[in-house]
Backbone:
């Protein structure tokens, strides 16, 4: 593991983003605009906005980062730059960490903006600390990047990569407790929701939204999300193939 | 000269999608040679090069590069590779591309200027790669492979699509590299490029048809053009 090569990769990904200001603007603004829209729709019903917004604060960045990362890695694969890098002294872990670092930084900016607007302008109120909501939002964005890195190995075309979003992310949204509270799900679906990362992210934000106490359960939920990020990054590194048939 | 061999391939077989793409390929390349790998499209040139880099899963055979197993970690900054379609970042400038790969290879920054001059792209240093022509992009890809002056260069059709003057300049560059001790394996499907090489490997349908010098090729086939020589070889072998 060389920190220099991972950092150089992160800087390169960031430089690619800088040459594409429209993508940066979309990355930063889309979640903020969507939450603003939600706040507008629910104006006059602050309880409802306070109920949904904390979870969506994490889910929108996850979706955006998942898509961006999937497309970026698929591009590395099809352009041959990934193969070229793997003939050089770049370890797969360094490649994956480079991406996580670059998009993680964007995630922090995105999370800060959307949270700042939600709490400052859209009138969001939570019982616990707003910072914990921001933390979970950023972790969710990182999770999106990590999932994008590990799943993009399965996609061989852009069409497939784009469809991975409804295939892998939508079921998590349906099962994470926003639509129906998780303990009211049919038994099998409850089990399924127990092994999906978004369930823990939404559990964590719900806890912060409803109680000011930092409980063990909350810390565990956050730890599980961190664990999922780490595992997805490791899977992302192992699914990169140097040798092909 | 067993120690000074840059490439040693023995009975290499590669199967892709259940088709034998390389069949019993064997050859040895001494260090410092400029070797041309010629053959029509689909003959297996790219597959062979990828096998030498350890990127291709092979069915059987031994491949030794600079005294090491193909694809070994120790080789990763000793071998430069140019893939057939330029592997460069279109959304970065030429300079940004070179600097990134230089930092991965841990190569000094002034080496970037050297390779840029070698491929004659200095005036495009600040251009976005996606705005360059195909030939210019190919030269960016070549420049990246030259970073750090690797001992072995594996170049997959580096001159295809370039104008004659540029092609001549690049072959001059390759010859200069070879006389400085670098080993070069350069592929092409344009038979006329044979004239530029010290030695030729003619590949057809995954098999080595001939392994000789350009002069020997013309002499053996009693032809004056390399295209005609290749046809004569095929007809003589069937
Ligand atoms: N990804 C692949 N899967 C299966 N067969 C392939 C693949 N790529 C190339 N081939 C086949 O391998 C043979 C050799 O291809 P290649 O090495 O690219 O030849 P060349 O570089 O000489 O044009 C061709 O018959 C081609 O159809
Ligand atoms: Mg080829």
Residues:
């Amino acid at each position: 593991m060389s920190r220099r090569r991972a950092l150089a990769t992160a800087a390169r990904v960031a430089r690619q983003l800088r040459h594409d200001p429209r993508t940066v603007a979309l990355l930063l603004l889309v979640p903020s605009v969507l939450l603003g829209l939600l706040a507008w729709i629910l104006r006059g019903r602050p309880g409802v906005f306070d109920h949904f917004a904390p979870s969506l604060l994490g889910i929108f960045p996850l979706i955006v980062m998942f898509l961006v990362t999937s497309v970026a890695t698929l591009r590395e694969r099809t352009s041959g730059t990934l193969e070229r890098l793997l003939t050089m002294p770049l370890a797969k872990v360094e490649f994956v960490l480079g991406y996580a670092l670059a998009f993680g930084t964007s995630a922090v900016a995105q999370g800060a903006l959307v949270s700042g607007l939600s709490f400052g302008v859209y009138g969001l109120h939570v019982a616990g600390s707003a910072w914990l909501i921001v933390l979970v939002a950023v972790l969710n964005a990182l999770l999106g990047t990590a999932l994008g890195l590990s799943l993009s190995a399965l996609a061989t075309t852009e069409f497939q990569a784009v469809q991975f979003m409804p295939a892998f992310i939508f079921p998590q949204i349906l099962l994470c407790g926003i639509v129906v509270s998780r303990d009211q799900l049919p038994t099998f679906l409850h089990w399924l929701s127990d092994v999906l990362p978004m369930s823990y992210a939404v559990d964590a934000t719900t806890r912060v939204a409803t109680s000011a106490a930092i409980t063990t359960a909350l810390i565990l939920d956050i730890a599980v999300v961190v664990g999922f990020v780490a595992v997805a990054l490791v899977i992302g590194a192992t699914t990169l193939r140097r040798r092909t048939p | 000269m067993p120690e000074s061999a840059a490439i040693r391939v023995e009975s290499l077989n590669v199967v892709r999608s259940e088709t034998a793409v390389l069949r019993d390929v064997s050859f040895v390349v001494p260090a410092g040679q400029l070797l041309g790998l010629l053959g029509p499209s689909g003959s297996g040139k790219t597959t062979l090069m990828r096998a030498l880099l350890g990127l291709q899963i092979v069915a059987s055979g031994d491949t030794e590069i600079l005294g090491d197993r193909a694809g070994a970690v120790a080789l990763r900054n000793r071998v430069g590779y140019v893939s057939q379609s330029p592997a460069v970042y279109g959304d970065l400038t030429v300079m940004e591309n070179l600097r990134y790969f230089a930092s991965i290879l841990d190569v000094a920054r002034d080496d970037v200027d050297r390779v840029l001059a070698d491929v004659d792209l200095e005036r495009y240093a600040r251009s976005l790669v996606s705005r360059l022509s195909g030939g210019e992009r190919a030269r960016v890809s070549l420049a990246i492979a030259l970073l750090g002056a690797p001992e072995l260069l594996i170049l997959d059709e580096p001159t295809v699509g370039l104008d004659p003057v540029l092609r001549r300049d690049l072959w001059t560059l390759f010859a200069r590299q070879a006389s400085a001790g670098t080993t070069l394996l350069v592929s092409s499907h344009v038979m006329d490029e044979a004239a530029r090489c010290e030695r030729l490997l003619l590949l057809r349908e995954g098999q080595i048809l001939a392994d000789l010098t350009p002069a020997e090729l013309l002499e053996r086939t009693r032809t004056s053009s390399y295209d005609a020589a290749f046809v004569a070889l095929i007809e003589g072998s069937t």
